Amino acid sequence: MQTISGLLGELTPEQRERLRALGHEVSFDAGDRIFEEGGRADRFWILHTGSATLDMHVPGHRDVVIDHVRHGELLGWHWMFKPYVWTLGAQAESPVRALEFDAKSVRVLCDEDLELGLTLTRAVASTIGDRLQRSRARLIDLFGPYAPRDHTPGAV
């Protein structure tokens, strides 16, 4: 999983500062919904402290937790790719402090600085790959042939 140094560490100091200048500090209380599945993906976060869960709606079942995002990790990647719609929901699992970025501003920066854009895209793609692998494993645990019938988060 990408950490702050991993996600931003690939950028030159000047690029990193240009990107960070677009961010602002935000916080979420435990239990706060950060975004909803199907909503417009118009921002993203790098978590400083706390953790968030990623969940998905499963028809006929309660929403299931697919993954956890922790300190230093990127929360939200759908802002980078059309149609800019969240395919999961997110909720603060514990109090969260994060750097929040406006997606459109970052996409404009990536268009203006193609080297920054390519590096950032590769870092986000790495996050996507990691998250898809973990999500796949979680879904197999939840819905595979030997999965428990109770699909509530944390059920054994």
Automatic annotation (TrEMBL):
User: What organism does the record attribute this protein to?
Assistant: Streptomyces iconiensis
Lineage summary: Bacteria, Bacillati, Actinomycetota, Actinomycetes, Kitasatosporales
Q: Which Pfam families would you find in this protein's record?
A: cNMP_binding (PF00027)
Name this polypeptide is given: Cyclic nucleotide-binding domain-containing protein
Cyclic nucleotide-binding domain boundaries: 7-76
What highest taxon heads this organism's lineage? Bacteria
